[in-house]
Amino acid sequence: MAWIILVLSGMLEAVWAAALGASHGFKRKIPTLIFAVSMALSMAGLAWAMTSLPTGTAYAVWVGIGATLTVIWGFVKGYESPTTARVLLLVLLVSSVIGLKVVS
């Protein structure tokens, strides 16, 4: 169950990161609200998952999921270009996260 909560929390990390960018320095209300709620839920889920998972592994998985999804969102929205190097590095990041899960 902790792994499921951790994955969902990592997904929420991508939500709050995207909402933070869309808030334009907290000047837009709806993205700011989405940022605050998703960040609180993401942190709460990470904290809960850390009660039964090693801290380093849980944090690395959480960040890896959030970072990967945030970059993919940037590709989809056209904010970033999906170059070969970026895609390969994302694959390496995801592989590393999976590797941490396997050896835990």
UniProtKB/TrEMBL annotation:
Record family assignment: Belongs to the drug/metabolite transporter (DMT) superfamily. Small multidrug resistance (SMR) (TC 2.A.7.1) family.
Location in the cell: Cell membrane
Stored InterPro entries: EmrE-like (IPR037185), Small_drug/metabolite_transptr (IPR000390), Small_multidrug_res (IPR045324)
Transmembrane segments: 33-51, 58-79, 85-103
Source organism, top-level taxon: Bacteria
Protein name: SMR family transporter
Pfam families attached to this UniProt entry: Multi_Drug_Res
Swiss-Prot/TrEMBL keywords: Cell membrane, Membrane, Transmembrane, Transmembrane helix, Transport
Topology relative to the membrane: Multi-pass membrane protein
Keyword Repressor tagged: no
